[in-house]
Amino acid sequence: MSQPPVTLTTASGIPVADNQNSLSAGPRGPLLLQDFHLIEKLQHFNRERIPERVVHAKGSGAYGTFTVTHDISRHTKARLFSAIGKQTETFVRFSTVGGERGSADTERDPRGFAVRFYTEEGNWDLVGNNTPMFFIKDPIKFPDFVHTQKRCPQTNLKSATMMFDFWSKAPESLHQVTMLFSDRGTPDGYRHMDGFGSHTYSLVNEAGERVYVKWHFKTRQGVKNLAAADAVRLAGEDPDYAQRDLFNAIAAGDFPRWDVKAQIATEDELNAWSARTGWNPFDLTKVWPHGDFPLQAVGTLELNRNPLNYHAEVEQAAFSPANAVPGMGYSPDKMLQGRLFAYHDAQLYRVGTNHQHLPVNAPRCPFHNQQRDGAMAIHSGGAERNYATVEAGGVDPRGMGHGEPPLALHGAAGRYDGRGGEDDYTQAGNLFRLLTDQEKRNLFDNLSGPLSQVSDEIVQRQLGHFDQADPSYGAGVRAALKARGRNIA
């Protein structure tokens, strides 16, 4: 008796729309990096022999639930949003970004804020930070940027010169640098900070209509930050401060919660906004102002269960922003496009070829594919064949991804450098002007510490960016440098 056909999915349980044709720019190509099914197939094939792995940065994690409180089904067909009151199991991992696994939780650093939703259509991973922007806008500079945040190859020490040499030559970084050196650069644990998807993503409804979205997690515990001196003190007294705070709160039944909200806009609305402001809505160094795109309530995230084993469930948790379920999609955000490849590839190296089989990573829904062998092949596929035959027309040829409408492309293929011709200062200045007088003084003092350690050339270059964001910004940092014995004109 023949078996009924099964739905082909990715290893994360997400349905595959077309297993016959790669996603291309026009019928003759070239191919697009966001074709995650293609990338996953090739990556897994290349790693069917056991690779070595690397360790991951320090983090903390917990399980919880996402509950829908407001109807957004007009924007997305994703089933987790199908009814008010619907709950979806989640796993959240917080982390420091630049430090090693043994580093202190209170270091001045962005914080990772990664949320996995175990939906009935596969895993949705929203991999963001506690900041709505980032330092760079093109993934080709990501390895360079991260190297500046790590250790000097000669001294094996963190280097203010490396950091500010990079930032001072990349004015696009000023928005995030301002956030990093403000009080929000040292949050008081993980429960008292907001989270952001940061990138622009998309939603697709049953009619195949696309809108773009930015995700926000607003802490119900209230935003609290550590004074710089307290952050340094805790780094010595209790380097696991944030881990301890999160675990103990959940263990005591004091479950942390976040209100999940979204900024939603049509392509026409974003085009009109871009024409008015000159800002690219898909530029990760920019934000969508709430006055232009108000926050809309969506649901509530609650963390209510601690992992039983840190290594198995937190260290081996492997997220990827490419994990988007039907009704969700990507955008032309260049940094997002790079992360669609880089995150899954990093997990293949770090954890192993079949990391998606591990309990914390496995989808809660059935999954079927032709991936076989390699390290940790917990689900071998049994006697099922390990290939798909060629079928003209595709399995479900409804455009790209999971029935999304085709994404229009504009312009010839090339390498485009907008640096120097784009506005990298207005939003950074707006953020600066939102700070209270005391917060500004803290910002000046936090910046003057590492800047006092670098050359005059780098300091002058960085001060020039502060001046363009707001003259009082540059003046304040100059005064703080002078107080440290560094006179800069």
Automatic annotation (TrEMBL):
GO terms for cellular component: cytoplasm. It catalyses: 2 H2O2 = O2 + 2 H2O. Keywords: Heme, Hydrogen peroxide, Iron, Metal-binding, Oxidoreductase, Peroxidase. Residues 9-396 form the Catalase core domain. Its EC number is 1.11.1.6. Heme binds at residue 343. Its cofactor is heme. Decomposes hydrogen peroxide into water and oxygen; serves to protect cells from the toxic effects of hydrogen peroxide. GO terms for molecular function: catalase activity; heme binding; metal ion binding. This is Catalase. PROSITE patterns: CATALASE_1, CATALASE_2, CATALASE_3. Homodimer. The active site is at 56, 129. It is an enzyme of class 1 (oxidoreductase). One of its GO terms (biological process) is response to hydrogen peroxide. It comes from Pseudoduganella namucuonensis. The keyword Glycosyltransferase does not apply.
